[in-house]
Amino acid sequence: MKNRIVFVLSLLLGLMFINAGLNKFFNYMPVPEDIPEKAMKMIMAMTEITWLMPLLAIVEIIGGVLFMIPRFRALGALAILPIMTGIISTSYHPWGRIAHFRGNGFHFSMGNV
């Protein structure tokens, strides 16, 4: 029973990262319209580095696939670790959180929530 739960959770997490990586190439998920100006500047600065988004996408896809295979799960977790560190470090700042989840999806906010 424990193995099934771990497999399902690993499968869901792996599919989540594969989805995020594919979205960086194909842009099929809608972008929220109410993104604050400071958060938008940060996003635009990241997209100006032309090699960064394809690199993140490839690492997310490969890490997601590796995370779903039990034998390579640790290697997939190591591949995803720098991306998760970047997500956490850009989501929390001394002036407050800039990103949080609402009931209907992802939402940016520059104040404390």
UniProtKB/TrEMBL annotation:
It is found in: Membrane. The keyword Transmembrane helix applies. Keywords: Membrane, Transmembrane, Transmembrane helix. It is a multi-pass membrane protein. The chain crosses the membrane at residues 49-68, 75-95. This is DoxX family protein. It comes from Flagellimonas halotolerans. The lineage of its organism: Bacteria, Pseudomonadati, Bacteroidota, Flavobacteriia, Flavobacteriales.
